Amino acid sequence: MDKAKTTKKKFDFTKYMALVALIILVIIITVLNPQFIAPNNLLNLLRQASVNALIAFGMTFVILTSGIDLSVGSILAFTGAISASLILGGTPAWLAALIGLAIGALLGALNGVFITWGKVTPFIATLATMTIWRGATYVFTGGNPITGGKMNTSFFFQFVGQGYLFGIPFPVIITLIAFIICYVLLHKTAFGRKTFALGGNEKAAFVAGVKTKKLLIIIYTISGLFAALAGFILTSRLGSAQPDAGMSYEMDAIASTVIGGASLMGGKGRMAGTLVGALLIASLSNGMNLLGINSFYQQIVKGVVILIAVMIDSQTQKNRE
Amino acid sequence: MQIEMKGIEKSFGTNKVLRGVDFDVHSGEVHALMGENGAGKSTLMNILTGLLKKDAGTIKVDNHDTTYASALDAEHHGISFIHQEMNNFAEMSVVDNMFLNKEIKTKLGLVDQKKMRKEARQYLVNLGSDIDVDSKMGDLTVGQQQMVEIAKSLMINAKIIIMDEPTAALTENETAILFKTIRELRSNSVGFIYISHRMEELWQICDRVTVMRDGLSVNTYQTKDVAENQIVHDMVGRDIGDYYPGRHPHLGEVALKAEHLSGKKFHDISFEVHEGEILGFSGLMGAGRTETMRALFGIDKLSSGKIYVAGKETKLTSPSVSIKKGIGFLTEDRKNEGLITEQSLEDNIALPSIDTFRKHGIIDKKAEDKFADMLIKRLTVKANNAQVTAGSLSGGNQQKVVLAKWVGSGSKILILDEPTRGVDVGAKKEIYELMNQLTDRHVAIIMISSDLPEVLSMSDRIEVLYEGKQMGVINAQGATQEQVMKLATGGK
């Protein structure tokens, strides 16, 4: 009782649960349809995964603080639309991208301000901004896609979503770089430690000198920034900004994070887990497409997988205690 | 009713926490169970009330072998367990709390509020309490909540009531009311098992005492036949002599000076504390000591006043600023404000100093490991390694981890709010010795304590607060409890 639990450094299976699930899934789909592991399909899969993965990286920070960001899909659509219309209007594509990212960061920061200074719970605050920015997107676009014109001729714009570097889709490279940055930020820096501390016990973190409000605002800013980055990539990949782009993307991002072992109660989660979670979700969609499974059924399967993943995780947690 | 437990054994994994405990209690007595944290008191009670299964031994209730299947089963047989952290629902009314799972229903199957209210009121009146049964549980004082818990025990016709540190969070007044209630119930042949860390309560309220140590019942005494020294000796297995190591201060410069601090629950508080000094803050609960220090440290807002650190006026607007100025704050509420219980000792200890481990923006993990190991050793935290979770340690060791945080962050001024609350006797002494070591190194300590002997023995000077006002400062040398208490209760 009094004695400290002995934690031996043995192989921690639970840490790799999501990875094992991913490998099993890959094997099953491959057996059913070997085309799945053809290099072209894998590259395609990675490109499909990248938009969700980017959002999920930002979401991981948020969920670690026991928060949630429902507004990512709307921020994605809003910033995507603004960048697209700037390009149409003659702004250089790289500048349009930067402005989109800046607005995304700003909207994220705004979420953080509502949550900290406004004392609105994250769920409600981001539910509200989700609705606001979706509405703003419709107002801004008049409900029509933004497409054509200079968007078709800008090399930069085309390259971000559709280009290849060393044979690898450029979005995949961006995602990989983003992953490395997020991984280091979360697991190797003081910022990451403070994030974990805040998620573990906000009051204790505050007393220990963590500037909790500032930290939360930064974290929601990161989430907004990544949503905007995903937005620009998606717009480029589709060659147009859709007013209903990113609808329910928050759900896939949350699912990736949770499948990766993060707890919605905060204080627990890993960046690598989130990456695996995002790959798992992308493999499911891609695999079921290959197997010719109707997309309506795909949703059901995805939901079941999320439930199973989280149930296994919480069961093994319990057993360990 | 008579309960007789014999040779009770219990292991968790390889850890044997009960190694043959004998304990008995009967209606109409208050039987105290004393022992350090981890001695096995709670485990024993959990076995009695069916929360845990015993590995060996017998439990006889009125001479029949008995094993209760669950806490509910034990309740049905008249044994009620009032836990230290009362399991009530703060947002629900008193009456709804009392009748939870035992709702009285009308013929239609709906809840009969009227009847429940009437009965609830009756039970409380019988206890001499005038608590409004419609008020929210969370709006009651801890003492009142305890009264409700006792009323709940009586509702199920409890013959034996187990109380785990019932007075830990009570004011003196509330304690007196609780004791009166216990005495009355005792004369109505209710029996009590009374778990407490407060030595003096043995002679105030208990008839017999059983001391446990390391999973064994050491001795059982009639309280009128035993002295405090004997109990302490049984608890720790050795003579710890005086609890208090004594003070030999060498005062340096003024480390911190506060002028006319005012805030929500305190007015015009001024004091100074020197390097190497322990300044005690005494007073009853609600005197404003904690509030003063929280505002000083920047957790709450200060409405007016000036603070000087090392002679320079300083605005301490948030904990992070205070920490940078060399101040540390061990809060009263260890679980909610002191520790992140699910994280490792290392994460906890390094948190206030985490920015100093940055090397090109990246945490130098090796340096951090070393830092944590060094502090764990220096503060004699008993833990297998720095990676175990803070929540897995005993109260005393948790408190040392919090201290390690602040020692590690290089605090020159340490505010300790109830540093030995919920800490067992052995660890208490170690914490006192640590305080002395710190002041030997010119650290200034401000210690808030509700434990009078502690304040008198471990302070150099004592500030006494009463209802948010400063009543006076006493030189601790030669001061008496009566002197302090007089000021603390508003006397002059």
UniProtKB/TrEMBL annotation, chain A:
Pfam families: BPD_transp_2
Localization of this protein: Cell membrane
Entry's transmembrane regions: 16-33, 45-63, 70-88, 94-116, 123-143, 163-186, 215-234, 272-290
InterPro entries attached to this UniProt entry: ABC_transp_permease
Cellular component terms per the entry's GO annotation: plasma membrane
Keywords from the UniProt entry: Cell membrane, Membrane, Transmembrane, Transmembrane helix
This protein's record includes keyword Transmembrane helix: yes
Recorded coiled-coil stretches: none
UniProt GO molecular function: transmembrane transporter activity
Membrane topology: Multi-pass membrane protein
Predominant location category: membrane
Protein name in UniProt: Ribose ABC transporter permease
Source organism of this protein record: Lactobacillus helsingborgensis
UniProtKB/TrEMBL annotation, chain B:
ABC transporter domain boundaries: 3-239, 249-492
Pfam families hit by this protein: ABC_tran
Sorted UniProt keywords: ATP-binding, Cell membrane, Membrane, Nucleotide-binding, Repeat, Sugar transport, Translocase, Transport
Gene3D superfamilies per UniProt: P-loop containing nucleotide triphosphate hydrolases (3.40.50.300)
UniProt cross-references to CDD domains, sorted A to Z: ABC_Carb_Monos_I, ABC_Carb_Monos_II
Cellular component GO terms held in the UniProt record: plasma membrane
Domain of life the protein comes from: Bacteria
Subcellular location: Cell membrane
InterPro entries in alphabetical order: AAA+_ATPase, ABC_carbohydrate_import_ATPase, ABC_transporter-like_ATP-bd, ABC_transporter-like_CS, P-loop_NTPase
Membrane topology: Peripheral membrane protein
Molecular functions per Gene Ontology: ATP binding; ATP hydrolysis activity
Major subcellular location class: membrane
PANTHER family (alphabetical): CARBOHYDRATE TRANSPORT ATP-BINDING PROTEIN MG119-RELATED, D-ALLOSE IMPORT ATP-BINDING PROTEIN ALSA-RELATED
The protein's name in its UniProt record: Sugar ABC transporter ATP-binding protein
